[in-house]
Each structure stands twice: as structure tokens, then as C-alpha cells.
Amino acid sequence: MRPARAFAALPAIKPSKNAPNRFTTAVDQGTTSHCKGKAFSSMSVSALAAVPKKPPVPTSKIFFILHTCQNAAFVLVRIHSGYSNAFGGTVAEVALGSVSLGGETTKIIIPVSDLEQVGQAVGAGGDIFEIRADLAGALTSQLASRLAPFGPLLLTLRSTAEGGACAEGEYAGRVRELLSLQPQAIDVEIARPEAAVLIEAAHRAGVVVFGSFHSFSATPPVDQVLARLIRASEAGADVCKIAVMPQHAQDVLTLLEALARARQQIDRPLIGIAMGKLGQISRLAGPQFGNCATFATAGPASAPGQMDAVLVRKVLGN
Ligand SMILES: O=C1C[C@@](O)(C(=O)O)C[C@@H](O)[C@@H]1O
Predict the structure, then answer these.
(1) 308 phi and psi angles, rounded to 5 deg
(2) Which atom from ligand 1 is nearest to the alpha carbon of 111?
(3) Which CATH number does the domain housing residue 92 bear?
(4) pLDDT digits (tens, 9 = 90+) for 35-92
(5) I want to staple 258 with a disulfide (CB 3.0 to 4.6 A). Which of 19, 37, 226, 268 is the partner?
(6) Residues annotated as catalytic (active site), given as ranges
């Protein structure tokens, strides 16, 4: 069993060691001036003066050549730095107590919805425990106090519209109640009209927000998956999450492609899941594809395709 962790009160968002795009900018600038230097040194005044019989090269032509050289080098370096940056956008790490999301390892989140599951979840060594409040109902606060000594808590209320058991009209009020349990993190469904006020309320309470989207019927096209993650980040979510249901292998690739592209555009930790057996590979994709965490089971699964937490940890090598 992994050692128990203290229950830290407030989460904090740590600035990244590497600021976004700084690498690209530095390389671009470096090469641009390198190109400029080379061009000027190969065009000395004496060299031009050594051919007096030819008509002098017009200044505008010289500038045109210099400009072309500079642009060509600039484009080459953009291509080169694109390779270097593949899957390598930088992320501002988010701390849930002592657990940091967005670094080099994918953290394991174990969903729990009844008291019997507590021992299993702790024994399996989850990094974070998710209490599915829509399934746990009145047991939620008891579960929170039992699990709190063993790791940070993510409280989630999944609405019926997104595959859970919480009635639409109760969603906002119950999310506010969950905040009073002082978890490290809370899930907010970004598609809900109350999302903005709930995110603000969570931040005021010092709680990290997982902004989420779920589709249990299909996988939207790449651009739409990407747009949803961007929308979560623009809405102020600290961690942006999407779970889709693949119908065939291409849908799993769609999810992974969107995730890899999101990694280039969003400077926050991401979670992308293709649910069901078909999508299981996405749950093991790890930080290389931008996944900061994966949901895995100790006892009953909270969504199709979740795998055993101990097995997942072995595969991820955490
Ligand atoms: O958002 C998610 C992801 C999830 O749906 C999954 O597919 O593992 C499981 C849910 O409990 C959790 O809230």
C-alpha cells in the first residue's frame, strides 16, 4: 500500500518552470539574428567595390535578397521547432494538496460511491479519490471524511444529461453544497448554464475546478473535441476534461488527436478519455498525449472501460 498523505486544506496553482512558447520564441529570435549576421558578413563593402565595371547592385535588390534569406531561415526554424514542440506545449501545473497535475506522470483517480469501496480504493493506492456524489447521495460527506486522510478529493456531481444520476434542476444547488465539504477539487460541467458562477464560487473557496464534457453516445469530430477543451479552459477551469464514446477505432484516434492538439494550445492540465473497451488505450495514453490523470477502478467502475487501478499503475510505471 502506498503511504497515506495528509489532507491539505487549500490547493494552489503553481506557475510552470517553462513559460508557454518561450522556447519557440527564443529559437526564432536566435536564428533570425544568426541569419542577419551571416548575410551582413558575406556582403562587405570592399567586395562590392572590387567589381567596378559592373553596374552597382541596386540597394533595393540587396534588401530583397536579405529579406528572402531571413524569411527562409525563419520558416526552416519554425518547422524545426514545430518538431521539437510536438506534444511539448508547456503546462501550468495544478496542485491538489500534495498531488500535482500536469507534470511528467499521469495520476490515478479512483472513483468511489459507497462505504465498502473505501478500503479497496485506499489499498489500491489512488493518487486522488473521486466521490461520485450523484451516486453516493447522502453518503457523500461520510465518504469525504473517511477518504480525506489518504489523498486529495475530487467531488463530482454528474447530471443525467451527461450520463449521471443528478436531476438537471438540482445540479447548481448540490454543487454549492459540495463546496462546503472543502474538497481539493470539484467537477463542473461546462455545458451547464450555471458553469461560470459555479467556477467562480469554487475559486473563491480555493477549490480546483475540473471543467468537464461527456458524450455517452458518440465522438464529435476533432475540431469539436478540441473546441470543447478550449471552452473549458476559457471558462476558467483549472483542469480541462472530456470523455467521449467511440463507435469504432477511428473515434479513439480522433480523441487522441484532439488531445495532442489541445496540448499545443492549452496551458492547463488535460484529461481526454475514449470510454468503453474500444477506448481503453486512451486511458493509458499518459502525458505524452497530454493526459495528466486517468480514472481507474478499485471495485465498481463509474464509467465503461475503466481498468483496475493497480494494473494501470503498473502499465504507466508510476
Ligand atoms: O469524468 C469522469 C471520467 C469518467 O467518465 C470516465 O470515463 O472514467 C468517470 C467519471 O466518474 C468521471 O467523473
Answers:
(1) -60, 130
(2) 11
(3) 3.20.20.70
(4) 223 332 333 333 333 334 444 545 444 444 444 334 333 333 322 233 233 445 678 8
(5) 226
(6) 214, 241
